[in-house]
Amino acid sequence: MVEYVLDKHDRPMKDLRISVIDQCNFRCTYCMPAEIFGDDYRFMPESELLSFDEIIRLVKIFAQFGTEKVRITGGEPLMRKNMDQLVARIKQVEGIQDVAITTNAVFLVKQAKKLKEAGLDRVNISLDAIEDEVFKETNGRGIKTKPVIKGIEAAREAGLPIKINMVVKKGMNEDQILPMARYFKQTGDTLRFIEFMDVGNHNGWNMDTVVSKKEIIEQIHKEMPLEPVDPQYYGEVANRYQYEDGSAEIGVISSVTDAFCSTCTRVRLSADGHLFTCLFASVGYDIRSMLRDDEPDEAIISRLIHIWTKRDDQYSIDRKNGKPTRKKIEMSYIGG
Ligand code: SAM
Ligand code: SF4
Ligand code: SF4
């Protein structure tokens, strides 16, 4: 039986985000800048990562509290072997209705079909520019758009519903808003713009580098008229719009200029099994050691209830109100 646990703002624990690996084949300047995540950066050894058995044990526990959606992320999740097997096992957990992956798509050419067959419901693909010269800069590795576009095509051919995520940062890629909108209007895929956020401690964020939801929508609307679409469910983070000609939809995730903490139902598990109640948290709770010390489910359950019922996070609202920031966990560690 499902027992809903509510935090201090009456938010349930609905969406579980699991980072399965902290490594990545990209070095996006806004996420894992190459100056910090260089060749000598120490990523987690495999023994520190939660095993698939450990992940499944936790997913079963979360499902008892009403968690319905699981998103697999990283780092680059498809760098971890046998992800199709993990997807298939998560899909079998009673109560889990939706399993998604967030990826940079490069490995989808090889894996899209297997993932679809394993039961993956959808895929979110990150692409921050359609022009090679800009994309080569944003991904920090000089990678052209072709491998990503090929990955998108493979996902489409496999029958996976796709959303494209574009982080917009002033001075980096705001000139790509219209070219990206034009490209994905024509393919019919949903493109979602994400306001650049101050995740981690190294991405050089300040308010002047944010391109707001308002600016993004105005730019597109001028050329390709848009109309708003009603939210589909409680806690939906993207403000959705459709082109008036019905060709496609876009969304904007305005975590900076229009924070949505009041309906945030996300709980995050890092690759080494620490639990975080906010993307901008400074500390996590070590659940892996409970698993590895063979503690019973009851002990893990009572720890989760304790953590969630005292959850008071609303970092994006506090940021907007000018509250001083603190040292935060890195996005590649906690998972986006
Ligand atoms: N590697 C995968 C990918 O890029 O899709 C999954 C992990 S990535 C950390 C998850 C999401 O976080 C991506 O959509 C990425 O664009 C987004 N992201 C990373 N850093 C960000 C930042 N500073 N502001 C906003 N979004 C960010
Ligand atoms: Fe890697 Fe994704 Fe971060 Fe880019 S956004 S560095 S692809 S984890
Ligand atoms: Fe949720 Fe924290 Fe983001 Fe607010 S800042 S929406 S509480 S993850």
Task: Please explain how this structure is put together.
With 336 residues, the chain is an alpha/beta fold. The chain has a single domain (15-334), classed as TIM Barrel. It is 31% helix and 17% strand. It has helices at 52-64, 83-91, 108-118, 132-138, 146-158, 177-187, 213-223, 288-292, 297-309, 315-320, 331-334; strands spanning 15-19, 69-73, 98-103, 122-126, 162-168, 190-195, 226-229, 239-243, 249-253, 266-269, 274-276, 285-286. Strands 7-8-9-6-5-4-3-2-1-10-11-12 form a twelve-stranded mixed beta sheet. It is globular. The two termini are 30 Å apart.
What structural class is derived from the secondary structure elements? alpha/beta
Number of domains: 1
**How many distinct beta strands?**
12
Q: How far is the N terminus from the C terminus? A: 30 Å
Supply the number of helical segments: 11
What is the top-level CATH class? Alpha Beta
CATH superfamily: Aldolase class I
CATH topology: TIM Barrel
Which segments are poorly predicted (pLDDT under 50) over 5 or more consecutive residues?
none
Question: Which value, in Å, is the CA radius of gyration?
Answer: 19 Å
Shape from CA axes? globular
Bin the strand percentage: 15-25%
The largest beta-sheet arranges its strands as 7-8-9-6-5-4-3-2-1-10-11-12
Bound molecules: S-adenosylmethionine, iron/sulfur cluster
Order of helices and strands: EHEHEHEHHEHEHEEEEEEHHHH
Percent range of helical residues: 25-40%
The quaternary organization reads as single chain
The largest pleated sheet is described as:
12 strands, mixed
